[in-house]
Amino acid sequence: MYAFAYHRPTSVRQAANLLGKLDEAKIVAGGHTLLPTMKQRLAAPANLVDLNGVNELRGIERSGRSVTIGAMTTHAEVAESADVKAAIPALAELAEMIGDPAVRHRGTIGGSVANNDPAADYPAACLALGATIVTNKRKIAADEYFKGLFETALGDGEIVTKVSFPIPQKAAYMKFRNPASRYALVGVFVAKRAAEIRVAVTGAGQNGVFRWAAAEEALKKRFAAKSLEGLAHPAEGLNGDIHADVTYRAHLIGVMARRAVAAATDRE
């Protein structure tokens, strides 16, 4: 590590003011991405603004048609929430799949969404459920929020404050995990709400999370795993690495999508 200034605001306004006046400032939430990159000298912010003292960023609230989760709510809190389990059980199950207990009790939904790691789970949930990412400045639809690898629509001094998820009629998430990190080699979140069907894929795309339009069209005819039989995602545009090449990831997309739809329909 190296020398940096540490700031611990107690409100979103204080945090935003610090970001506006400090040079080379970075927000830290759970710290699972930023701190390792700092240790490896891949990032060198002069100032860290820790959001763990901002209580207004915590909590889960269910309204008639949505579930809203504060940015500093941990994965464990989402996984254990009775409101989330009742309204969007797939979201609670997704949170339970993240990392290990230590990660789940420290990592936050806001940190995951703000970082937009290409193998993270929450971006798929946001995109499939048609979530709205709320910041200290505006509201951003998920379709407009995720821009590419580790890239979002967030501007300078903009802080994710909460994420609002519409409650679907059916939804499920399935992922093929890296056995060491538990990150998604491929994860597929499927959601049906009224006449709209969304299929979001994480862990596979060269540009991060994306929607699989062909699967969405097939499921509009009939929301059943059989509707996806014979449908293959092309290998072009996918990410290949030491863990899985593009052909294997393309195969996994189809497998995980069929399993997700089967799980969603089994809830009936």
Give a written overview of the molecule:
The chain has 268 residues and is of the alpha+beta class. Among the domains are: 1-50, 2-Layer Sandwich (Uridine Diphospho-n-acetylenolpyruvylglucosamine Reductase, domain 2); 170-266, 2-Layer Sandwich (Enolase-like, domain 1), CATH 3.30.390.50. It has eleven helices and 14 strands. A hairpin with a 3-residue loop joins strand 4 (60-62) and strand 5. The longest helix has 21 residues, at 246-266. It is globular, with a radius of gyration of 18 Å. It starts with a strand and ends with a helix. The mean pLDDT is 95.
Oligomer: single chain
* Overall shape: globular
Mean pLDDT: 95
> What's the name of the CATH homologous superfamily of the domain at 170-266?
CO dehydrogenase flavoprotein, C-terminal domain
Q: Which range does the strand content fall in?
A: 15-25%
Write the layout of secondary structure elements.
Blueprint: E1 5-7, H1 12-21, E2 25-28, H2 34-39, E3 47-50, E4 60-62, E5 66-70, H3 75-80, H4 82-87, H5 89-97, H6 101-104, H7 109-115, H8 122-129, E6 132-135, E7 139-141, H9 142-145, E8 146-148, E9 151-152, E10 160-166, E11 170-177, E12 184-193, E13 196-202, E14 210-211, H10 213-221, H11 246-266
Parallel strand pairs: 1-3, 2-3
Antiparallel strand pairs: 4-5, 5-10, 6-7, 6-10, 8-9, 11-12, 12-13, 13-14
